[in-house]
Design goal:
Elements: H1 2-20, H2 25-57, H3 68-96, H4 102-140, H5 150-154, H6 156-184, H7 195-215, H8 218-221, H9 231-235, H10 241-246
Helix pairs in contact: 1-2, 2-3, 2-4, 2-6, 3-4, 4-6, 6-7
Length: 264
């Protein structure tokens, strides 16, 4: 999140500098490269959150294994980022050498298109998980959900977080689709010359995503899901499963399910 925001700031600094000196190639490349790759960092933060949501409702409601979410989407996001950065670097080097930047531009657009594809798959899996959870609840009731996090699911903060996460994902998706179409048209295309569309579909979308991801930060909204035992209980021999097991107070069958948020 921090890296994405820093790149966004640098990108708009480049745009402001380009306004005062439209023919400065360095300023132009600075804003193009920074604003193009910045949302990939924001998307990575969103991808990491889905596995926590699956834990909260119950891994049995998911088609794929819990750890598969970060293992699938983070490498895809990294690949998208590498393609965009590589394409931007090649286009910049070609421009400074008075050569055609087309190859670099094509690689950069490919990276953006792959980011759109990854976001689309992510949203499909989110919808699939939501639908499966609702269907299992209709059939099994509360037994379909993980009882460990019942209080967290009832929390208004957590419910607001789910809405905020969905909105942020949609905003980044809209922005990414716009940039693919814009850069795909080339430097003489209609979209790249339309500043109003750029501000609305690039700037505003990213601002909304960043604001709501910070206002509804997962560290705040998931806080009620952490089980913290009273100090007196911890001093009298309480603690986490692993601490009690080390003392020989519990057996292996008492081991909590993967994803339990218990902390000392």
């Amino acid at each position: 999140m921090v890296s994405g925001c820093i790149l966004e700031v640098l990108g708009y600094i480049g745009r402001i500098m380009s306004y005062y000196d439209p023919f400065n190639e360095n300023d132009f490349l600075m804003q193009i490269c920074c604003l193009t790759i910045a949302p990939a960092f924001l998307a990575a933060g969103i991808y990491l959150t889905l596995s926590r949501i699956v834990v909260t409702f119950g891994p049995k409601n998911s088609h794929i294994k819990l750890l598969s979410y970060p293992r699938i989407f983070i490498p895809c996001d990294i690949l998208s980022l590498v393609l965009q950065a590589l394409g931007g670097g090649m286009a910049s080097a070609a421009s400074h050498s008075n050569k055609s930047p087309d190859t670099g531009d094509h690689i950069k657009v490919t990276g953006l298109a792959f980011q759109v594809f990854t976001l689309a798959v992510f949203m499909i899996l989110c919808v699939d998980f939501a639908v499966r959870t609702v269907l299992r609840m209709n059939r099994l009731g509360e037994a379909a959900l993980d009882p460990t996090h019942a209080s967290l699911r009832r929390s208004m903060k957590f419910r607001a977080f789910l809405i905020a996460l969905a909105l942020a994902t949609i905003c980044i998706f809209i922005r990414s689709v716009f940039r693919v179409v814009e850069l795909g048209e080339g430097w003489e295309g209609a979209l790249i010359k339309n500043q109003t569309l750029f501000i609305v579909l690039e700037g505003v979308m990213v601002v909304i995503a960043v604001l709501i991801l910070n206002l509804f930060h997962r560290g705040l909204c998931f806080r009620e899901g952490y089980i913290r035992k009273p100090k007196a209980e911890r001093r009298s021999g309480g603690g986490t499963f692993w601490q009690r097991r080390a003392k020989g107070d519990v057996n292996e069958q008492a081991r909590p399910a993967r994803g339990n948020l218990e902390i000392p």
